[in-house]
Specification:
Blueprint: H1 5-25, H2 42-47, H3 55-62, H4 72-81
Length: about 80
């Protein structure tokens, strides 16, 4: 998405920091990171100029393994699990 380089760089930084911490702290301390894909939050919808009516088409276009977009509840469940 044009104009979101800062967002992508921050996500990449968190991913690499997680890998480094896992190497440095493991196996004594387990390090995890939740890496959500497309979750139709207000910010995402605005950035991609989408409406709720666009979501089924987006899901089909992305060919997601789960067959659907993520939800905030999915992220919360992953957080509680970890």
């Amino acid at each position: 998405i044009p104009g979101s380089g800062h967002y992508g760089a921050a996500k990449a930084g968190v991913n690499m920091l997680t890998r480094v911490f896992a190497q440095e702290l493991g196996p004594r301390i387990r390090v995890n990171c939740i890496m959500p894909g497309a979750v139709p939050t207000e910010i995402m919808m605005k950035a991609m100029k989408l409406s709720d009516a666009d979501l089924p088409r987006l899901e089909k276009m992305l060919r997601l393994p789960a067959g659907r977009l993520g939800t905030p509840q999915d992220l919360g469940a992953a957080t509680l699990y970890l």
